[in-house]
C-alpha cells in the first residue's frame, strides 16, 4: 500500500488508525511499486520513476540483453499490414517458433494488431522495439515541486494504418488513443488529433482541481475519518 498526502501529520494519523485495525508493517519511504523504482532528491524536490528493472527482466526473458540499442520506438521503413502475415506452411512453421504473442504482451504498440497471425516483418518490428527499450531503459519520469501545469503535445498521420487507411493521432498527457474515423486529409487528421487531446486536457484539469480540493487539510482529515469509520 502507498499512502500519499500533503500533510505528514495526517499521513501518520492514518497509519496509526489503520495499524490499530489491521496487522501492518511500516516499510518507510517507498522504493519500488508495480515494477517501478522510486528515487528521490529531497534537496532538489524531485521524484523519479524508473522501469529499468522491468525492462531488464523483459530483455532477459527474450534473450536480447546485448542487442544493439535503438533511439526510436519504430523506424519509418516499417509499414506493417495484415498482408505480411504468413501465406505458406513453411512461413507458418517458422513463425510458430517465434514467441511473438508473449513478447507483444510485454509491450504496447502497433505490433499488437498482428498477434493472431504475425509474420516475419511484424517480428522484426518487435525486435526493433526491444532494442529501443535496451537504449532507453534508464530513462525516467521526473516530478518536481511548483505549480501543476498541464503540457500537451499532439500529432497525427494520414492513413498510417495500411489495412484500413485510418489515420492515427497521438497526444501526450498521460495516455494516447486511436482516432475513430477515417480522415481524408492531413488537415482533418491533425484536427481530429487536436480535438482528442483537448478533451483529455479538460479531463486532466478537472481531475487535478478535484484532487487539490480533496487534499486541503480539513477536507483530507474528514475523508480519512470517514474512511477509517467505514
From TrEMBL:
Residues 1-74 form the Reverse transcriptase Ty1/copia-type domain. Pfam families: RVT_2. It comes from the Eukaryota. This is Reverse transcriptase Ty1/copia-type domain-containing protein.
